[in-house]
Amino acid sequence: MKILIVGSGGREHAITWKLSKSDKVSKIYCAPGNAGIASIADCVDIRATDIKSLISFSKENEIDLAVIGPESPLILGIVDEFTAAGIKTFGPSKAAAAIEGSKVFAKKLMYKYGIPSAKFMTFSDPDSAYRWIDSIKDQCDTDGIVVKADGEAVGKGVFVCNSANEAMDAVKEIMIDKIFGNSGDRVVIEERLTGQEASLMSITDGKNVIPLIPAQDYKRIFDGDKGPNTGGMGCYAPVPAVPSEMYNQVMDSIIIPTVKAMESEGFLYKGLLYTGIMITKDGPKVIEYNSRFGDPESQVVLPLMESDLLDLMLASISGNLDSISVKWYNKCAVCVVAASGGYPADYTKGCQISGLESAADDQNIIIFHAGTRYNNGYIETSGGRVLGITAIASSYSNAIDSAYTAIKKIRFKHIQYRTDIGKRVRDINLQSV
What's this model's pTM, rounded to 2 decimal places? Predict the structure, then answer.
């Protein structure tokens, strides 16, 4: 099969890497791709949101399957347009992708169908939001509160606030300063959940669901979960805090009901459903949904998958996931993200990267590129998150050590990364997970 992967980040590199191992795949294109993807696929200079050009390319090159990586084209309806053009496409429809495209939609869906999540309010004007925050000021100052932009915000539209003043500042940034553009026309304000977070990705054909192993992401930029939210600074899988019994509970109380709820609303959900949960004292609750593979979660989950990812994607499209089973390697994976200095705020691009070959000497290391590009024969930075250094091992401690040994060999100006990825599971025996 000829495959087109749409996107340019670490997620797309991980998907490309995994699909390249299928004996059913003859050729992979990636649009627009990055310097790492270019080593295993032909990169095409077409933006992920230029749907018409992507369709034209797919027809000209007789693409058998398109895989949509990022959320933006999904929210724009790329799957609907590709399908109408006769091209098999992995991902949810525009209507179904609203589960990520609108937090208001997602929260109302959960409320209607009794899917456990945080208590919430929605607002379409800042003054109303200010008044409501002021009315629960004491609660905000004691327990904290979360303010979310309604629409797409590349993983940065969530403000975890420790006081009413912080929450009001977040409303101002989202709704008045418009730091996320029209995505901030509405906000969701919800209670702050406490506990451990986990990312649970599932592949579904709209009726049947196959869960992937859970991962735990590190959103904050600095060690100790300090600083602003990012797209993700690292992760590990599997997650000891989500044993099989709890995963079954999440499947029964959250993921399967979500898929059924979408069908009941008339939005058959096909593709990858990402469910971010908080493991609270009252049980697991939904933090958010995404309509695509997580990044960097895909960089630890896909390397642990023994089965052919292509089979799962095709079964999702054709509606026969009930005939598929998935095998996993009995190992763990840890990914540490190398980011540009200044990220998630302003950062410099065009910094030459060195040490990649040396870092990849360890056969247990996979380097997934995100914000990279070629320039005059050299690889340089082109984004906030630059690389994902993934280590596969039979223990968490070995994977952590390997990942950090590798990342210390990589050099570019103002490189930054967290030093505590996987710290909480370092001494846990994988066999007990």
Answer: 0.94
